[in-house]
Every structure is written in structure tokens, then in C-alpha cells.
Write a structure and sequence with these properties.
This protein is of the alpha+beta class and about 425 residues long. The chain contains 18 helices and 13 strands. The strands form three sheets. It has a six-stranded antiparallel β-sheet. The longest helix is centred in the N-terminal third of the chain and has 31 residues, at about 60-90. The protein is elongated.
Length: about 425
């Protein structure tokens, strides 16, 4: 080494510094890759992506070969720099070479390449995989020994390498990924994807038509009344019962009834023959589960029952789809049968409206963890049946009682433009 010309030693040192920067940048670039984008590129037969994905299946071995190469070139560069320093400055050249090499390595072989790789991981890491993959094969025995010793040391400290869970995402993590996708996913599509993730947090109780609002056909009525109800109904499917909703016989599709009506064959006897068995689901069923159940049972409508078998409400496939794609009208408040817009821009709201529907219509954030309806929420806060004219704040949203019955709040008045800011949803008040 002492016999080599000074120019050659400097050339070797520069080459080693470049290699040091290559290994440093490769580590940062490969570890910064988006694993899901990498998988997508790999499925498109991108050779560099396939090599990088293969290397990342065992990050311990990848880090091993990178650090093996990086430390080797850094140590060799240190020895050559010392030799150059001694030739140029004598014994004091050792300190000069040490200080100079530290600065050069830090700037040109560590900070700069790692910064570039962090901001452009694909551009840096994918070409680097063409070099690292053969190096890993060449030095595999040494890398294997290093990783075995390193992994063994980690086990001593109770650290386990969970390779199987490395590529998994929780629903909350997936939510963050979708939210931060930016312009890569249109805003409307982001909202739909987030709504799908929310299905597991919402049950059929939250979106069902309450028992007292179910529109059905009572076979105990006179046939003339039933026929008129069939011809004037705005629903395509309706439950059929005798006496009350707890004595459900089944469901009827009005298209079948219309066909018989056109053939002048519709009477109570023929009507009974087109009734299909009702489909019951337990209350508390998550929406993502019920969506799959509708698909499996080839149904579009179900009756929600409690643990005693009593009917609590009715849920449809369209209700679940609206949770994903949003309301089918531009103004949810205008389409709700429980919200009536007044001339001054305020609303008269039926107390039986669900909290989720009211939150959607007015873009409020009333608590949904407890009671499901506005009436239930008011009674829970007040702990008594309020008199008409009573005003209260629930989660700092103003509500005025307009009409009550003997055991429930019938109608409330809401001004959507009036709210205390900032809201403190942990408190409420009455006047």
C-alpha cells in the first residue's frame, strides 16, 4: 500500500467514499419504501421492485449485508486516509486525516445520500437492489452468521421478530392511509372508503326504521283498504302482519301484487300466496356483517328483533348503502320525513328521529354511544318528561321542546345556525 502513488490512493479513497454513500443511501431508501406501492410494482413485473421486495422479506439479512459493506469501505477508507495524511503532513497527518475524513464521510457519505434516499426512496432503492441482491448471495455465509448472532442477542432481551405481521394494517391505520392519500384518491372516493371502514362501528339499531314507523299491511283490515294501500304505497317491499307488527306473516313484493292486479286475480287468498317468509336479524348486528348477510341470503329488507323476539325496527340494503355512498339527495334534511324545514331556516324535528340521522342532516356531533333517538337522548339528560317550551343544550347544541305526549318528546324546535363555540360536549344545560 505504501508503494502506491499518492494519486491512486486518493482515487481509491474517493471510490470508497462513493461506495459508503451508496450503502448508506440504500439502507434509508429501502427502509423508506412504501411496501404496498412496492408490491403493486412487483405485480407489474418491475424487476427492481421484485428484487427489493425479496430483500425486504428478511430485513435483518438486508441490513446485515448493507452494514457489512458499509463498515468495510469505511474502515478501509480510514486506513487509506491515514496513509495519505502521513505522506502529506507526517505524524500530524493522522489527526488531520481523522478530522477531514469524519467531515467528508458525514456530509458526502451519510447525510447527503440518506437525505436524497429519504425523499426519493424508489429512485434510489430500486436500482440499488440490483447490486445488493448479488452481494447478499456472495456474502451469504457471513451475513447469515452475523444475523444469527444479532437475532440471538435480541432474543436474550426478549425481542421477537414478527415477520408475519410486518405487512398488516389495522383499520385505524388503514383509515390514516386513506385520509392522507391526498390527490391520489378523489375526495369522494376517500369518503366512501372511510364509510366502509366505519360500518363495523355501526349496528342495524343505528339506521333501522323504528318499530312505530314501520309501514306494513295488516291482513285484519278489509280487503278494500289493503288493495288501496297496495296501489298507493311508495314502497316496493312491505311486511305483512295480522293485528300488530309482532305477528308478522312475511314480506310481500308489490311487483308480484301488481301483476295479479293487472290480471284481475288479486284477492286476499291469492295475496297470501305471494307472501314470502320474513327475514329476521338480531339487534346489535354490525352493518358490515349485515351487508354480507343480505348478500348471502339474497335479501334486501330485514326485521330487527331483540333477545325476546320482539320486533324493534326494519333495516334495508339501501339504508346500509347510504352509509357508504351518502344520502341519495343533496340535502339530507330535506329528504327526511322527521325533519321539517321552516320559513326562517329552522327545523321542527320529530323526537323519534335517530341521533345518527340528525347528525347527518345538520352536521352535528351529538353523542351516539347511548340512546339511539333524540327523544331518548333528551329523556336521559333531563331524567323526566319535559314541559313544552323547555330549552336545553345537549353537547352545546340548542334544542327547544315544542310538543310532548304522556311518555315521550313528540316534537322539538332546532336552530342549526345557533351553537356555543367552542363546544364542550361533556356538559348540558336547561332553561
Amino acid at each position: 500500500m505504501n508503494e502506491l502513488p499518492l494519486g491512486m490512493l486518493i482515487g481509491i479513497l474517493v471510490f470508497l467514499l462513493i461506495m459508503s454513500g451508496f450503502f448508506s443511501g440504500s439502507e434509508t431508501g429501502l427502509m423508506s419504501l412504501n411496501r404496498y406501492r412496492l408490491r403493486n410494482l412487483s405485480e407489474k413485473q418491475h424487476k427492481g421492485a421484485q428484487l427489493a421486495e425479496r430483500l425486504l422479506t428478511r430485513p435483518d439479512r438486508l441490513i446485515g449485508v448493507i452494514l457489512l459493506g458499509n463498515n468495510f469501505v469505511n474502515i478501509l477508507a480510514s486506513a487509506i486516509a491515514t496513509l495519505i495524511g502521513i505522506r502529506l503532513f507526517g505524524e500530524s497527518g493522522i489527526w488531520i486525516a481523522t478530522i477531514a475524513l469524519t467531515i467528508v464521510v458525514l456530509i458526502f457519505s451519510e447525510v447527503t445520500p440518506k437525505t436524497l434516499a429519504a425523499f426519493n426512496p424508489e429512485r434510489y432503492a430500486l436500482p440499488a437492489s440490483y447490486v445488493l441482491a448479488p452481494l447478499l448471495k456472495i456474502f451469504y455465509p457471513l451475513v447469515w452468521l452475523i444475523t444469527r448472532l444479532s437475532n440471538g442477542l435480541l432474543r436474550v432481551f426478549g425481542v421477537r421478530l414478527d415477520e408475519a405481521g410486518r405487512m398488516t394494517l389495522s383499520s385505524e391505520e388503514l383509515r390514516v392511509v386513506v385520509s392522507e392519500a391526498g390527490s391520489m384518491i378523489p375526495q369522494r372516493h376517500q369518503e366512501m372508503l372511510l364509510s366502509i371502514l366505519d360500518l363495523e362501528k355501526v349496528s342495524v339499531d343505528d339506521i333501522m326504521v323504528p318499530r312505530n314507523e314501520i309501514v306494513g299491511i295488516d291482513l285484519a283490515d278489509e280487503w278494500e283498504e289493503i288493495a288501496q294501500q297496495l296501489t298507493e304505497s311508495q314502497h316496493t317491499r312491505m311486511p305483512v302482519y295480522e293485528g300488530d307488527i309482532d305477528h308478522v306473516i312475511g314480506m310481500v313484493h308489490l311487483r308480484r301484487a301488481v301483476r295479479l292486479f293487472q290480471q284481475d286475480e288479486l284477492d286476499k287468498e291469492s295475496f297470501r300466496k305471494i307472501i314470502r317468509d320474513a327475514y329476521f336479524v338480531p339487534e346489535g348486528t354490525p352493518l358490515h356483517t349485515q351487508l354480507l348477510n343480505f348478500q348471502h341470503e339474497r335479501r334486501r329488507i330485514a326485521l330487527v328483533v331483540n333477545e325476546y323476539g320482539d320486533i324493534q325496527g326494519l333495516v334495508t340494503l339501501e339504508d346500509i348503502l347510504e352509509e357508504i355512498v351518502g344520502e341519495f339527495t343533496t340535502d339530507p334534511a330535506a329528504s327526511s320525513r322527521d325533519i321539517h324545514i321552516q320559513d326562517d331556516g329552522t327545523y321542527l324535528v320529530d323526537g323519534s328521529i335517530t341521533i345518527r340521522e340528525l347528525n347527518k342532516a345538520l352536521e352535528w356531533e351529538l353523542p351516539v354511544e347511548g340512546p339511539k333517538t333524540l327523544n331518548g337522548l333528551i329523556l336521559e339528560y333531563l331524567e323526566h318528561i319535559p314541559d313544552p317550551g323547555t330549552s336545553l343544550l345537549i353537547a352545546n347544541y340548542p334544542i327547544e321542546i315544542v310538543q310532548t305526549t304522556g311518555n315521550a318528546v313528540k316534537t322539538v324546535h332546532i336552530d342549526p345556525n345557533w351553537q356555543i363555540v367552542p363546544p364542550d360536549r361533556g356538559k348540558s344545560g336547561t332553561t
